[in-house]
Automatic annotation (TrEMBL), chains A, B:
This is Sulfate permease. CDD domains: STAS_SulP_like_sulfate_transporter. Gene3D superfamilies: STAS domain. It comes from Halomonas alkalicola. Its main location: membrane. The keyword Amino-acid biosynthesis does not apply. It is found in: Membrane. The keyword Metal-binding does not apply. Pfam families: STAS, Sulfate_transp. It is a multi-pass membrane protein.
Length: 602, 602
């Protein structure tokens, strides 16, 4: 056991020097400025008090620096996970109650334990079942729901709703109560942030600011909006004119909290915790990998699970909420020059200082400002071109994406993900259950075989060669039987059927029984069954089966051999009966893992 | 629309002649003799009155003759489906109540509608997800449970239980109340049937009876046991000495029944009906295919669904129970010379005559006789060699089989099937999520590439060729990223990575995004990504993607080209940049659906 694998901090801490310290400190300052409004906003999105967002941005970052493998990932509250948190714990208790807060801690703990366990058990591959179209559709739909859920804060009205339709209807019904000062603040911040995102960087560059600082300044726009709107609200007493503000936030370091261990609550939150874990992990690991590759570094997905898991456990014991690696923040961290996870630990110190000293200042921070921050941030999650691209590339991927979006918007986040995963699995299985196969014939003057329906090729009424373009397993075993038997029924003079297996990576027990059935049925009708181009690992298994004994035909090295020999044009030296294989005849070179067994080589 | 396809009776009825009639009549007589005790016994197994078994062997057979495509399948009650019926409706109402009978009708109707709908919607492929090891394990476990559930009748005791353990414990606890005459009858019948199965045929052959009639006589042993034990029980008044008998059975044709349409009941029975449909269909279609192939006939699985579906609907309206094609009976029907489904219709007439005239005679038929008939029949379902074979062939198939057996025995039939299907899908997905891949090198003096770890091959520190032995889809997309990036990280001098795609049958949208990510990350680290041997249908799709534009490398016809050109040993005429492909450069012959794109051919 290599301690550096399980404690990645040991990889970089011993060699930590002054130059790295400088880079990390600078990145930490910039990320802290960006994280303060984000952590407040995402806590609000999750229906939690603002300080919870700050707390979730302290201990988890320190823990991630110890256990995480990405050098630049910025852990903390993120939009989609906050939305999922709200959806999950909203079913447990009403917002503002101690039960609601407690459920957030339990959710973070469960998600942390699940992630850690998945990492230790090397179950990171589970995240693979969230296909790209499903995750992309889910994030787009989440972005729309989050934006819709924040509009009420920009308008200064009361409205509820758990899905897009309810949210929009709720807003429509409350348009009469719009609070003008709130709307003014909300729209100004929206316009400012949108403009900053759109034009600030190029404007700064035109003013002579170098590219990277200009970028950093642009990313600091939200903190400017926070500062200005807080000042204005305080100066003009707008909170007394109906502008909702954050209010008194306790100053101080994160409290020590003990998540509950009520088994009822745990089982209620189980599915939500699992989905939050997987979605958070997928998001985080793809950011981490993208950034690591830019510097030719590697991250270890299984250790990442441990890193994110322990971060969430830390969040649950320090008054936090579920966290993961955030996309925008990580990019900023990377661009600002962070070189090691120490940058994250320094960010934690920055946020801790903010929690100690700055909280009195944000009492007058308008909720509308935070809502506008969220809206501008999440609208970039809505990825319409991805939908169009998926439609163009693959209808079945598009179907999974559309199902995810529709169910997420209409029913909810958990159902949306599950519908997408279910449909993409079902479509994948459906596709492999009816694999592409082709009857092939010899291209004249060559040793190559092509689809008889697409090319002018030689065929022989006594012999049919069927190429199967898929591994043979239970879902398509019967389809293979049907295809072969239909072929035999169609060609009455047939004496030989060859299955060309170059694309067959596996033959499972069901497919083996189908091959046995095919062999027996073909035998009853006087047709021999041959195999050609069977891969090494597949042949290794077949050799010890009854099928191999009972097979009426032979195993040919190449399709060309299978074309010649049964028709009496070859001496048969390049084929073997299975029985011979089992008698110990060595066939090392003909039947191995090579890509192209080819007569020339032997 | 071809009426012969949807009404298969039109295929054989017009040409029906006297010779065929003779063969079919003979087969019908033999099957009737076999079916009478079976239908009584399987009705009892399902917890239903004996006449229900007879009723289920009349109308369904006639309807199957119209809609079914197998010439020799014998439809009616079968052991496994009867067990599943008992398990399903046992949860609705206690045996002997009108609700229990009604639930059996509803189950038959639901199963009939499901099968018919699946047939019309061509959803027969759904049955493929029941893998051979799962169905084999399920049938073995069912055989054990059925045998255990019938032991109490042989012993003449009262005992209950829903799984093997409960059944055996129940029996153990009631051994004190064994009824001696019942046990005598039960053991005699068991011994007689076992002996008949084992030795009767060869004895008859030795006595000069030809093989086929000897076989038929052997199959008639149960009716002999029924006749003899009924006579003995009646003659010696054994029913008054504690021998449980069938009792009064109403004489007459099947009643017209109307299955209930209570939505609560329907939703309670939904899963059971679906599983019964699929298990029944899988059993039936495999018998049908095996027999059809022996005479070079074909059955149409989708039309078979309609045939079995309408048979079950007919059962539900004529006082029956769920039915399907029985293995042993169909083989007897085939061997007895049945040539068309008319044999089934004649069998129905035979059973109808029995229902009209013979029912008074079976009042004294001991339950122990029927139980012994069932036990001998189902023990042949227990297939231990299949378990051993599966273990030897594939550990993952064995795991699915074992899970099915264990859960079926310990929990129940429905859970058993679902556990098996779930596990086999999960294992399949797990396997394809970590596909076999190999870094390959050039076999000296050839154009062939093999695994560098297994063979002495040429490699180049600047170029790595990775062969992926699986279609690329969401479950393995990230694994591909990891594999490629690990390869790049391992070989610092690398300038080119080639993915050899001859075993890649599909690249879905997730895998495409992974390829984009790989391309971008490799670009960041100064490595070009090339593809080789991309199949036609896969390339068709890739051509219109952004990835194709952004790809840093080229698409090579063959791995050998990919080996030569980046290293400056070729003129590049056999590769194309994706951009060129999209500009309209025709590449018909290099990139098509052929198995072996090869330079020689162009």
């Amino acid at each position: 056991m290599n301690p550096k694998r399980y404690l990645p901090i040991l990889q970089w801490l011993p060699g930590y020097g002054r130059a790295t310290l400088g880079s990390d400190l600078l990145a930490a300052v910039i990320v802290t400025i960006m994280l303060i409004p984000q952590s407040l906003a995402y806590a609000m999105l999750a229906g939690l008090p603002p300080e919870v967002g700050l707390y979730a941005s302290i201990a988890p970052l320190v823990v991630y620096a110890v256990f995480g493998t990405s050098r630049t990932l910025s852990v903390g509250p993120v939009a989609v996970v906050s939305l999922m948190t709200a959806a999950a714990i909203g079913q447990i208790a009403p917002q503002g109650t101690p039960e609601y807060l407690g459920a957030a801690l339990v959710l973070a703990l469960m998600s942390g334990l699940m992630l850690t366990l998945m990492g230790v058990a090397r179950l990171g591959f589970l995240a693979n079942f969230l296909s790209h179209p499903v995750i992309s559709g889910f994030i787009t739909a989440s972005g729309l729901i989050i934006a819709a859920s924040q509009l009420k804060h920009v308008l200064g009205v009361e409205a509820g709703g758990h899905n897009l339709l309810e949210l929009l209807l709720g807003l429509a019904g409350s348009l009469g109560q719009v609070n003008a000062p709130t709307l003014a603040i909300g729209l100004s911040v929206l316009a400012f942030l949108y403009a900053a995102r759109r034009w600030l960087k190029s404007a700064l560059v035109r003013l002579g600011v170098p590219g990277r600082p200009a970028d950093m300044l642009t990313k600091a726009a939200p903190i400017l909006a926070v500062a200005v709107t807080t000042l204005v609200t305080w100066r003009y007493g707008l909170d007394e004119r109906g502008v909702a503000v954050v209010g008194a936030v306790p100053a101080g370091l994160p409290p020590l909290t003990l998540p509950g261990v009520d088994s009822g609550l745990w089982s209620q939150l189980f599915v939500a915790a699992l989905l939050i874990s997987i979605v958070g992990f997928v998001e985080s690991v793809s950011v981490g990998q993208t950034l690591a590759a830019k510097r030719r570094q590697r991250i270890d997905p299984d250790q990442e699970l441990v890193g994110l898991g322990t971060s969430n456990i830390a969040a649950s014991f320090t008054g936090g909420m579920p966290v993961t690696g955030g996309f925008a923040r990580s990019v900023v961290n990377f661009d600002a020059g962070a070189e090691t996870p120490a940058a994250g630990a320094f960010t934690a110190v920055g946020i801790a200082v903010a929690a100690l000293l700055l909280t009195p200042l944000i009492a007058y921070l308008p909720i509308a400002t935070l809502a506008a921050t969220i809206i501008v941030a999440v609208l970039s999650l809505v990825d319409i071109p991805a939908i169009r691209r998926t439609w163009a590339y693959s209808r079945s991927d598009f179907a999974a994406m559309l199902a995810t979006i529709a169910v997420t918007l209409v029913v909810g986040v958990e159902s949306g993900i599950m519908a997408g995963v279910g449909l993409s699995l079902a479509l994948h299985l459906y596709r492999t259950s009816r694999p592409h196969s082709a009857v092939v014939g010899l291209v004249p003057g060559s040793e190559h075989f092509r689809n008889v329906e697409r090319h002018t090729v030689e065929t022989d009424p006594r012999l049919a060669i069927l190429r199967v373009d898929e591994s043979l397993y239970f879902a398509n075993a019967r389809y293979l039987e049907d295809t072969v038997m239909a072929l035999a029924a169609r060609q009455p003079g047939l004496a030989h059927i060859v299955l060309a297996c170059q694309a067959v990576n596996v033959i499972d027990a069901s497919a083996l029984e189908s091959l046995e059935a095919i062999n027996a049925r073909l035998k009853d009708s006087g047709v021999a069954l041959h195999l050609a181009e069977v891969k090494g690992p597949v042949m290794d298994r077949l050799q010890h089966t009854e099928f191999c004994h009972e097979m009426t035909g032979k195993v040919f090295l190449s399709t060309f051999d299978a074309w010649q020999e049964p028709r009496g044009e070859s001496d048969g030296s390049l084929s073997r009966r299975c029985a011979e294989l089992q008698m110990g005849a060595t066939l090392d070179s003909p039947i191995d893992d090579s890509t192209h067994p080819h007569p020339r080589m032997h």
